[in-house]
Amino acid sequence: MKKQNASDTLNEMIAVLQQQQALELEILKDQFHITYESLKPVNLIKNTIKEVVTLPNLKNNLLNNVIGLTTGFLSKKLIVGATHNPVIKLAGTLLQFAIANVVARNSESIKSTGDVLLHRIFKKKKNYYNDEYSETGNA
After folding, report:
1. Angstrom distance (rounded) from CA 45 to CA 38
2. For 98-108, how does the pLDDT look when each residue is reduced to its tens digit (9 = 90+)?
3. Where are the beta strands (DSSP E) in 9-116?
4. 103/97 Cα distance (integer angstroms)
5. Per the domain annotation, does 99 fall within a domain?
6. Number of structural domains the chain divides into
7. Which helix (H) or strand (E) holds 7?
8. Of 51, 71, 92, 110, whose Cβ has the fewest other Cβ atoms within 10 Å?
9. Does residue 32 fall inside a structural domain?
10. What distance in Å separates the CA atoms of residue 104 and residue 63, rounded to the nearest whole number?
11. Are 103 and 76 in contact (CB under 8 A)?
């Protein structure tokens, strides 16, 4: 009789393990499907675009880099010009990348300095025009 109880217990344990195995197989299949869908090229591109768009300060960083590249390009054109000397062209390219890098890294301080200078320039012009207007108004 002990053997029958032991075999019944063993059969019950086997049935429980088979149910657990079936459940884990279903979970594995679901995970495989999710992984398969996420690795499709279209979904990879969509997810990458979503991540890039949701990055903080994306517009600011992009603007800083564009300003840096433009400044580097213009400085190269101003300094090097339209030379055909390969050494000067190489030096100009190195200068372009150096200036672009410096401007992109320090764009916030450059912007604030530019704002202060523009404010001072326009404030002086405004005061000049106001003084001139007040003199003509008195006459």
Report:
1. 10
2. 888 888 788 77
3. none
4. 10
5. no
6. 1
7. helix 2-38
8. 51
9. yes
10. 9
11. no
